[in-house]
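During the no-cost extension, the postdoctoral fellow (Dr. R.K.) reprocessed legacy sequence entries with the updated structure-token encoder. One reprocessed record is reproduced below for audit purposes.
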Amino acid sequence: MTALREYARLEATGLWRASPDAQRREVIVSLGDATLTLTDMKDQPLAHWSIAAVERANPEEVPALYHPDGDPGETLELPENETEMVAGIEKLRRRIHKSRPKPGRLRWLGVLVSVVVVLALALFWLPGAMQDHTLRVVPQVKRAAIGAELLKRIERVSGTRCTDASGLAALGLLSKRLGAGKLAILPEMPQHSLHLPGGVIVLDRDVVEDWEEPDVAAGYILTEMTRRAAKDPLRDLLEVVGIRENFRLLTTGDVAPAALATYAEHLTTTPPDAPDVAAQLARFGAAELRSTPYAYARDITGETVLHLIEGDPMNGKLTEPLMSDANWLRLQNICGG
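Re-encoded structure tokens follow.
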């Protein structure tokens, strides 16, 4: 489905450039519910752009030239014969633009009032009150955009996310089985797993490549889901980048690129908090998944993860395979072997 009711499916061909010094490549552009998906002629995904963060570099000119917000070096050129796709993208951009505050006296008066209110909160309530208010008003589309920007910055260190088509299909099946939402696998991430605002869980390739069964990777996913449920990842970001960026997000809807870089470094270098054991085991039980394989993957001796071994909710029970052997092999090769 697309974000436009009049189209069940909308595709076009275009020219994509990953960076200013890269060669342009012919790609298939697919308009989805919330993203533009760029794939090569072999139907292998190359990039995913959030529709809310798509900018046009040459308004009213042809061929239309688009880029992700904040990254003009990555471009997508749509030729003048792809009028339906250009019209569809522009319609969505106008719709998003209309939903944003408009310039004018009333807007500036509202901003002034908001500033006064926020300052009063900061002075009389404690910084935590500002965080609570920010988390209530930031929409999901902005959280997703922040998560996408963070993932780009992590990819600069860990390599571009793995995009083997059959591996992505298997990863989608695993996500559906666990109810995990969006999953991504990076080739050289310092942490085994982490989660981002917007609902993205990121895994390192060794989580799927170094083990004979998918229960280990699923264990890392369920553990990140436990952490995510215990603490809003956007709250964690605000705590790391400080009250200034909290104020910026509340008043402008944006987080400074430098602050996002700081938080991306924090995520990849700081050991995550230990999840609540009872909540963690409850997730394993709800998923009908053994916690013991994940425990031994964390500590081969079992000494530091004894609670996951002794409290395994599936201990002594027969469980269905998490996924077929064929799909597990496809997932293990998602990074190209």
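Residues 105-124 form the longest helix (20 residues). Strands lie at 10-17, 25-31, 35-39, 45-50, 54-56, 64-68, 75-78, 182-186, 193-196, 200-204. The remaining legacy entries will be reprocessed before the final report is submitted.
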